[in-house]
């Protein structure tokens, strides 16, 4: 069981971090420019059939500069760095006697290690809010900036004791236009 946090902190320390940006000023550009094939694969799996997500002429007729990217893929897919690249070690080791969780722990949220949090063993995503300012289209390359704590609410729930934490980051396109503001929430807790 992976334990995160530091015993010297309490949830009050986490609350005091509200308003702080834990990105260290680092910008996180997506690995690739959004291309038609990747968008098609995304829409195909979710059976998203709106023509503006598939055909340039339909998108332009609707007033967009190119094929539109569904809002759901903006944060889920097209702002992420790669999961694995050739030459990197496998993320799924197999073999007799191998403890997969020990040899390949789930990567922690980069910001969780910096945020002053007490020890906790579990966390779940709770919510996400995305406010869009510009459409995201094929040909865009997105960059994430910031990772600010915007809310911390310590709570005892049926699953355990912990805190609901909300983080905010901004998404820009290659023209430095603000595309979206994303606030994502999670509940970090100890069962019991």
Give an account of the 3D structure.
- With 192 residues, the chain is α+β, with helices and mostly antiparallel strands.
- It has one domain: Hotdog Thioesterase (Thiol Ester Dehydrase, Chain A), CATH 3.10.129.
- Helices cover 17% and strands 29% of the residues.
- The protein is built from 5 helices and 5 strands; from the N terminus they run αβααααββββ.
- The chain has a 5-stranded antiparallel sheet with strand order 1-3-4-5-2.
- The longest helix is centred in the first third of the chain and has 11 residues.
- 20% of the residues are buried.
Return the domain count. Answer: 1
| Element string (H = helix, E = strand) | HEHHHHEEEE
Strand order of the largest sheet: 1-3-4-5-2
Which oligomerization state do the chains in this entry correspond to? Answer: single chain
**Which fold name fills CATH's third level, the topology?**
Thiol Ester Dehydrase, Chain A
Number of strands: 5
Using the alpha-carbon principal axes, give the shape: elongated
Structural class determined from secondary elements: alpha+beta
Q: For the CA atoms, what is the radius of gyration?
A: 19 Å
What is the CATH level 1 assignment?
Answer: Alpha Beta
Sequence stretches where pLDDT stays below 50 over 5 or more residues: 96-112
Helical amount:
10-25%
Task: Please tell me the CATH architecture by its name.
Answer: Roll
Distance between the termini: 15 Å
**Average of per-residue pLDDT values:** 88
In terms of DSSP E residues, the strand content is: 25-35%
CATH superfamily: Hotdog Thioesterase
